[in-house]
Write a structure and sequence with these properties.
The protein starts with a helix and ends with a strand. The chain has two helices and ten strands; from the N terminus they run H-E-E-E-E-E-E-E-H-E-E-E. It has 219 residues and is mainly beta.
């Protein structure tokens, strides 16, 4: 028998996804799937992503294309002392990314959680990039909504040879919105990313993805 709490969680997730579908939004190439909270020291989590399920292009300058209905990703994160967290991630096909995060607010601060995040990646093993920003979240009884802001930095991003992804990598500001929904032995994390050109908020790639997180232990 499923409990009322279980049905409330699933209902919250369905309502969230429905709202996204109504306004026809989509998700981003390098998803995050984390909140403003970092993992506690020694704790590990493994995650899987179905990235870029839907996407929307606004404006004429942006390009984005893919040959699959979604882009798979997977990764592993572990908690470090002093509220730090590190992680490694792989995105289909040949994009790899490492991250270092720090939860800024002290444990005694209960109003919301806030983290600073730095990512270093290699896009298609051709172009290296930094992605850095902040995430804020609020843990509620059934869900944990979060919002983030990121920007990209690198001096050679225009050397990318794949024209399908040229504009996607040169846009360098990202607004991220999502929520964590608890399920048995893990979490479901719907996430929306709005990636836009730095000098024009209306030129954007909007992507929608869903991630799955589970506890991970080394034997």
């Amino acid at each position: 028998m499923f409990s009322i709490k279980y049905y409330l969680k699933i209902t919250s997730l369905i309502l969230f996804i429905s709202a996204v579908a109504i306004i026809f939004l989509g998700c981003l190439a390098t998803t995050n799937y984390y909140t403003g909270r970092t993992l506690k020291k020694g704790k590990m989590m493994i995650f899987f992503g179905t990235d870029n399920i839907f996407y929307q292009i606004t404006g004429d300058r942006l390009q984005f294309s893919k040959n699959m209905p979604f882009s798979p990703s997977m990764g592993l994160a572990t908690g470090l002392p002093y509220r730090f967290e590190t992680g490694l991630r792989w995105y289909y096909q040949k994009t790899f990314e490492g991250s270092l995060r720090w939860q800024i607010n002290p444990e005694s601060f209960r109003y919301f959680d806030f983290s600073a995040n730095v990512h270093y990646g290699s896009f298609h093993l051709e172009v290296n990039y930094f992605k850095y920003g902040f995430t804020m979240s609020k843990k509620l009884p059934l869900v944990e909504p979060f919002v983030g802001y990121y920007w990209y930095a690198n001096g050679d991003i225009n050397r990318l040879s794949d024209e399908d992804y040229m504009d996607a990598i040169t846009t360098n500001r990202v607004l991220c919105l999502g929520m964590v929904v608890g399920i048995k032995n893990g979490y479901i994390i719907p996430e929306i990313n709005y990636q836009y050109i730095a000098d024009d908020f209306s030129e954007a790639l909007v992507f929608y993805s869903i991630g799955f997180k589970f506890d991970f232990r080394l034997k």
